[in-house]
Amino acid sequence: MIARTLIRGQPFIRAFATHAGPNTALPAALHLKTGQSFHGRSFGAPRSIFGETVFSTSITSCKNTESMTDPSYRNQILVFTTPLIGNYGVPSNKAPIDSQDVGVVMESEGIQCSAVVVADVAEKFSHHAAVESLTSWCRRFNVPGITGVDTREITRLLRDQGTTLGRLAVGVDASAPAPTPEQYWDPSTENLVDQVSTKVPYHLNPDGDIRIAVLDFGAKANILRSLIRRNAAVTVLPWNFDFNSIRDQYDGLFLTNGPGDPRHCMEAALKLRETLQGWGKPIFGICMGHQIIGMAAGLEAYRMTFGNRGHNQPVLALASSGSIKAGRVYVTSQNHQYALKLTDPFPAGWEPFFINCNDSSVEGIKSTEDTGKKVWGVQFHPESAGGPLDTMEVGAFHLWYMHHLSYSCRCSRISLASVVPTSSRYQRRSPL
What residue stretches are annotated with the Carbamoyl-phosphate synthase small subunit N-terminal domain (predicted)? Predict the structure, then answer.
């Protein structure tokens, strides 16, 4: 009888799951500026919000907590294409601050998206690391959610008509008429980077053997974690900090991901242009950082109709660099609404590095060999949180290059393995 119950599985296993709490859901409605409305029930915080409605192809709950805490999702209504969300629960977000971690397990201290849309939120959760349900976590950070809606249809709409402004109405607001077009609020009109960037510089792993300055446009924790686990001494700076005033103290510069319109950060691009002209050490940027590098180089940023979000975006390498080989397709993790325009000819001294296989948008740029500079930018997130591991070596190689350039004059021999260890203890520890 026990064996038969185990084979049948689900009823037996769910008996050991933790309840999310009493179901006191209020009615909820998701209104899109394009005129469609979806009605369901609420979970999380009982409040109504405006935001930018986007969808993500994150598959498992551990990746969903990473997405929700990624500052790149600031002020976005996040629609998950995966039908069941929350069955893993939410882990504790506390971690040490040392040479292996940066104080949090997820990508920031709290939820960054403004709301969550799911087809079916789990009323029970079961995982050895879980400490609370998705519902209670959202409630604790005052983030509303809606469940019981057809996320397939919402995703089709967003895929066909592009990212759309939205309104999540909860409680009595759910029965009120949908907002008029002029009532919708567009978060891209604000400098979201300024909201999520650090306000004061701070240091991590100060005894590391390579000094990296990080311009924080809304950095995920795993970017910093990846650097310190490779023994970098990291100084995190506000997005508009004048790096040129201290640049000779560092072996390299890293520009992070971030939310919103990069054109709000032209101040940073102009300062970086001065850096590019007068500083010969390596520079590497991802996502927003890649766009800032592109604008400093003379490229134009534009708002995409659809954007690229999710953990399965294919990109084609157009140039070789380290372990990256021209002609190979890599599967990447992305979250961006803006991109660099592909121009012909490209600015002098620059060349395309990657291109998106789906929409041909620019996924990476790099300085040309003849310039003697070592500058790279990629639109995707190479360090995999969350997402695939295909491009992990992009960041690892460039960190190694920074290290090698800094120490080649002092060391008679240095190996890639000694700088970027491949043993399991250096791999990112999953929160689940």
Answer: 26-169
Residue 33 has a pLDDT of 97
pLDDT in tens, 244-273: 999 999 999 999 999 999 999 999 999 999
Pairing status of strand 27-32 against strand 37-44: antiparallel
The residues annotated as belonging to the active site are 287, 381, 383
Q: Per residue in 95-106, is it b (16+ CB within 10 Å) or e — as a string? A: beeebebbebbb
Condensed to tens digits (0 to 9), the pLDDT of residues 96-123 reads 999 999 999 999 999 999 999 999 999 8
Residues 215 and 252: beta-carbon distance below 8 Å: no
In angstroms, rounded to a whole number, what is the distance separating the alpha carbons of residues 177 and 404?
62
* The pair of three-digit structure tokens given for residue 374, joined into one six-digit string: 């070592």
Helical H runs in 34-190?
61-68, 134-140, 151-161
Confidence of residue 306 (pLDDT cuts 50, 70, 90): confident
Q: What is the rounded average pLDDT for all residues in the chain?
A: 85
Torsions phi, psi of 357, nearest 5? -75, -20
Q: How confident is the model at residue 4 (pLDDT cuts 50, 70, 90)?
A: very low
Q: How far apart are CA 234 and CA 206, in angstroms?
A: 7
What is the distance between the alpha carbons of residues 359 and 355, in angstroms, rounded to a whole number? 8
Phi, psi of 303 (to 5 degrees): -85, 125
* 114 vs 185: CA distance, rounded Å: 12
Query: In whole angstroms, how far apart are CA 203 and each of 69, 106, 120, 193?
Result: 22, 19, 41, 20
In the chain, the domains with their CATH numbers are 2-188 (3.50.30.20), 192-426 (3.40.50.880)
Distance of CA 402 to the CA centre of its chain: 24
Of 57, 58, 68, 59, nearest to 91 by C-alpha is: 68
Is 18 a residue whose pLDDT tops 90? no
